[in-house]
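Protocol step 4 of 5: obtain the predicted structure for the target chain.
Materials: sequence only (see below). No template structures provided, no constraints applied. The aim of this step is simply to have a reference model before the mutagenesis design in step 5. Sequence pasted as it appears in the construct record:
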Amino acid sequence: MATISSSPSVDINRATAGELECLNGIGQSRAEAIINYRKVFGDFKQVTDLTQIPGIGQHVVDQNIPLLRCVMMAGPAYHTRSKLASSPPTPTYRRPIKMKRKSTDVHTDVKTTPSPGKKPCRLPPPNDLSSYPNLLCGPAYCRAPCPSSTSPLSPPATTKQRLLQSLPHIDPPPGLNDWLKTFQNWGSIERKLALDHLIECCESEQVKHVMAVIEPRFQRDFISLLPKELALYVLLFLEPKDLCRAAQTCQYWRLLAEDNLLWREKCAESGVDEISSVKPSRRRGGQPILVNCPWKAAYMRQHRIEMNWRSGSIKAPMVLKGHDDHVITCLQFVGNRIVSGSDDNTLKVWSATNGKCLRTLVGHTGGVWCSQMSGNVVISGSTDRTLRIWNIDTGSSLHTLYGHTSTVRCMSLHDNSVVSGSRDATLRIWDISSGECLHVLIGHVAAVRCVQYDGRRVISGAYDYTVKVWNPESEECLHTLQGHTNRVYSLQFDGTHIVSGSLDTSIRVWDVETGNCLHTLMGHQSLTSGMELKGNILVSGNADSTVKIWDITTGQCLQTLQGANKHQSAVTCLQFNKTFVITSSDDGTVKIWDIKSGEFLRNLVTLESGGSGGVVWRVRCNDTKLVCAVGSRNGTEETKLLVLDFDPDCADPS
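Step 4 output (structure tokens):
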């Protein structure tokens, strides 16, 4: 490479940053910009090209004209194919564009493979993030070798070589160098005029060649040219699957696309609010993958779990047997423990991890009909008219609560208090620490079938067709909600809205403060046996074999889960989250649906005895596990619990 001569003039194509800083109006930042421009676009062709640098205007160039010169390295314009094969092109010709980037921001742990240029990435299908198993974090996730740290989005370095190799085997025409020197000595206007005439003289094939050479020079990687904060703000608008694709572009894009705070925002949008539970992913060989972006790892894990629910292979379930041929009447699932209650008078505590029966809670003298669970405490209600409070760590009965004169049919737990409803038409409020009965609520004239309690108000539904709102401290009935024309079987309460389901086929939405009926939701054809309310979304299951999704603020039915794959018998239980609805039925199946579109996704459980007596009575689930209580009323299906695991990091128990 040529060096700067002893002349006082400065060659803008060879000067160092220190030499450029000595010029008028050129400070450190502009000197670095000039050098970066040379790296990106090659040599300047004339002194006035300095105006293409941001911040350098014509007046700055005019001040320094006597001190500046522009010398380009001379050389032949074309190379033969043999020369290209044996040695790199001479410096006369600009290398394909290399976009400016901040080299200090490059991952030091990324290993790149020396190559003439960036290899195109082989991208997986765009609609499924599960196709990106190697994109979590760290060097193991880059599918294609990244380019060098100085060219985040440059076209392949071999583009120009391929173009030159496509030329015939000829030597440069005589006089070419003289023509190039003449062209360099012309001003900007003369050069443009000469190019216009030159293009007019070219055939279409030659014009295409010129386009192929020129086009890459105008490709700009705006992400790498922006300040990091602005670049991250732009990437914030991408969907997670697009961020994963962007991470494969180059090292600097991967650095940005794997920013931890960026993925924290994506996690917040999708409802992932913690990273403490993220398990380290492993390569096929079993070695753990280092995680440099915990929030991205949390998002990717949650996505893999969702895809497992949606379409992953269903592992053989754990089978938990213990209630003989009796009916499982109630089911609780908290943490890694499952508690099942049965009409065999017992409750059983199971490990959701290994399927072992940890405890059998014995003490009731009648069938267990309802239960609640908090931490290591379980409360059960029975046909023997009592409630019992159990410590499931020891299996001991802490208190037996007497007071009801008929079957305890329902209960609701809040903090240290539990409200029980009975067929004796009363409700009782108990302190679970002492076992003391704090309050008795009297007003219904028929059996209390369902109850909700939020610590401030008690809501009860009964066979007398009414819903009552109680102040538990004063034992006063604040409102009696009348409107149903048959028994009330199910309730939901969020502190503001009461939702009641009845045998009269309707669902009613009430205001807890005024007692007014806000909406009457019509559409079901039979008993609404189960409901769940989260935010403004209500999901109802009905004995007419359908499930409906409602917006309780508008009273609108958003989706009806039916069609060719709908249940063939009454819906017995349901659970839902922001993505899925899971339903069970008397037909012996458990189905999963997309909550937004109402689309049937697949059957998670299909009993062989379904349709001939096999029933799924209850379902409970968390993020990764589904627990189903199954059996039959005619002996065609053995009573048991099925535990399905959709954790992508969990081995198949079989």
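Step 4 remarks: Residues 294-311 form the longest helix (18 residues). Residues 1-7, 74-158 have pLDDT under 50 and may be disordered.
Proceed to step 5.
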